[in-house]
Amino acid sequence: MKLKTHFFHSDQLQSLLDALRNKGYDCIGPQVRDGAIIFDEINSVSQLPRGIHDEQAAGYYSLNKSRSSHFFDWANGPQAIKPLLFSAKENLWQTSQSSGGQLSFNNILPESRPLAIIGVRACDIAAMKIQDQHFLQQQFVDPYYKERRNNLLTIAVNCSHPADTCFCHSTGDGPFTEEGADIVLTELQNGFLIQAQSSKGKQILEGLSLEDGNNEHINESEKIRQKASRQNKQLPAFNIRSRLFEELKNEAWHSIAARCLSCGNCTAVCPTCFCHSEQDAPTLDGLASTHFRQWDSCFSQGHSYIHGITIRSETSQRYRQWLTHKFSSWYEQYDRSGCVGCGRCISWCPVGIDVTESISQVIGHDPGSGNGEKND
Amino acid sequence: MINSSLNPYLPQEAIIVNRVQETPTLFTLRLKFTEQSIQDAYTFEPGQFNMLYLYDVGEIPISIVSDPQDSQIIDHTIRIVGRVSKGMANLKIGDKIGLRGPYGRGWPMLESINKDIVIVTGGIGCAPVVSVINYIEQRRKEYGHLNILQGVKHTADFIWKDRYDKWRELPDTKVLLTADAGEALWPWHIGSVTTLFDQLEFDPDNVFIMMCGPEGMMRVVCDHMLDNRVKASQIFLSMERNMQCAIGHCGHCQYGSKFICKDGPVFSYDEIHQLFDTQGF
């Protein structure tokens, strides 16, 4: 199905935010804070990182002035959608104990409000679809994630300036959002192409005064796509999925582990990592206790704890667990790789470990030749 | 029992109806949901587990050892290891805890009808298979030869002598017990479980092996069975990993692509043989 494409001028971007607010959405958008692009509440387009460009490399992230006055001349920041749906820390239920020792258990469901997030990338939409699979489409539905997901409207902006760490074209997840968002924008020289990808998105568009997108706009957009698809970083071409498990005893795991701090930054910024731990927080008076969950990492000491034993005591074992899960066992779980090519784990690794290089080190093929699914 | 449209994370209150001190470090809690309608609706299969919650402290996964036929009581045998189990050991009859479950896939009781059965356990690994033995006892004619092989490290670790004595009396049933380190008055075998393999009675083409315990022990049993023409698809293992949510969300129990909490904890050997006994998984 060919989706209808519309156009609006750059100075009308505020009316999109206003339309969302009029429909009852609180808006979340990108903004510069503490030297990075982060997502938080936004009311005015003046808060957007206009004329800002990001420079990313292994263990490196820096914002600079861009050569244009575009709103979206950057690739991504450390987080986007994941914390909005799968909260970094949240209460699950509370229990209280009566004087007679009776326990009562009460749900604590999130007080969710309609949220519209603007400026997310194709990689983030792809990651959200994976988290949807994990939290919503298995035997058990996660009521916390579901509540927030039902209230989220996504406005993707196609990526025009992938960073040097990006490899979404290699994983097949970008740079353009083909489906899965509610609305998708492409920033052109003088305005935006806008397209609804869902009925929710369509309703928003109906309230805006839009021109029809013409061939010139579409050609310009196509050029942006082609340029943004030329990414230097790629996954090795050969069958990563089976090769990783053939190389469990490879020496490379140890040489990578010699650099890895086991800090878990990669899993914290990864938009698909879903591990979380559950704990209890008793109140000071001892009359109640709150059971909460928070993000956990397979790089933590406690992740593999079992009755007095730590299954993965070595960093090499933890890195191997992360990589083999993300790029291999994930296929059996969710029918695709767990990597969307956003490159965050590369930029935000304090010692600059590059996941694409790690894979090629382990499986013995050069990076930069494909999508990792070719059979040799 | 689990209504997945409700919050699958939320426990229900249960009461300790009875408590048995099995050894200094091992105890059994006999539980019942406070709410009778929840108890009445509760059913489980041998090999499944529940999440038990100790007030103010947290949850632990514990396999169910009672008989699925008994609709009014749910037994859990617990070893004192961590914060939760230590605290639970201090609970008394009448105390309340949280309970949710059952979770996971249990033993292949229907698939193994008319087959010979070999049950091998080590340490207190016997807990997850007690319900299997009870199940077969109730339906003794539906199964072939029954072999129960239990190994313990020290003779003091051996519990439930009465039950083994009773099982020994079942028709067509062999009970083999061994301790790695023998002591005075230990009437059974001394040595590892492997030293008793030649006493097992089964038809390799028509047998189901069910085991739990240390993975090193299970490795030895698997190798022995495979060498004796038993197919990998006839060998079943109960696996353990860190479990916090029990519903396949928290990620801790992942074993390759498997979530032990929901895809297991019981697996056939051909489902997990590629990773089995690989350090770090």
- Please state how the strands of the largest beta sheet of chain B are arranged side by side: 10-9-8-7-11-12-15
Major pleated sheet of chain B: 7 strands, mixed
End-to-end distance of chain B, in Å?
A: 31 Å
CATH class of the largest domain in chain B: Alpha Beta
Order of helices and strands of chain A: EHEEEEHEEEHHEHEEHEHHHHEEEEHHH
Count of domain modules of chain A: 2
| Largest Cβ-defined interface | A-B, 56 and 46 residues
Alpha-carbon Rg of chain B, integer: 18 Å
Quaternary organisation of the protein chains: heterodimer
The fraction of residues in strands of chain B falls at 25-35%
- N-to-C series of helices and strands of chain B: EEHEEEHEEHEHEEEHEEEHEH
What would you call the structural class of chain B? alpha/beta
CATH architecture of the largest domain in chain B: 3-Layer(aba) Sandwich
By DSSP (H or I, 4+ residues per run), the number of helices of chain B equals 7
Explain how this protein is built:
The complex is a heterodimer of chains A (376) and B (281). Chain A has helices spanning 13-22, 82-85, 122-136, 143-150, 168-171, 199-206, 215-229, 240-246, 252-257, 265-269, 315-334, 344-347, 355-363, and strands spanning 5-9, 26-33, 36-41, 52-57, 60-65, 89-97, 103-107, 115-120, 152-157, 183-187, 191-196, 211-212, 276-282, 288-295, 305-306, 309-310. With 376 residues, chain A is α+β, with helices and mostly antiparallel strands. The two termini of chain A are 35 Å apart. The mean pLDDT of chain A is 94. In chain A, the strands form four sheets. Chain A has an eight-stranded mixed beta sheet, with helices on both faces. A four-stranded antiparallel beta sheet of chain A has the order 7-6-14-13, with no helix packed on it. With 281 residues, chain B is an alpha/beta fold. Chain B folds into two domains: 12-103, Elongation Factor Tu (Ef-tu), domain 3, CATH 2.40.30; 116-272, 3-Layer(aba) Sandwich (Rossmann fold). Chain B contains seven helices and 15 strands. Chain B has helices spanning 36-41, 83-88, 127-138, 161-168, 215-227, 260-263, 269-272; strands at 12-23, 26-33, 49-54, 58-63, 74-79, 96-103, 116-122, 146-154, 173-181, 189-190, 207-212, 235-238, 254-255, 258-259, 266-268. In chain B, the strands form three sheets. Chain B has a seven-stranded mixed beta sheet, sandwiched between helices. In chain B, β8 (146-154), α4 and β9 (173-181) form a beta-alpha-beta unit. Chain B is globular, with a radius of gyration of 18 Å. The chains are: A alpha+beta (376), B alpha/beta (281). At the A-B interface, β6, β7, β13, β14 and β15 of A face β6 of B.
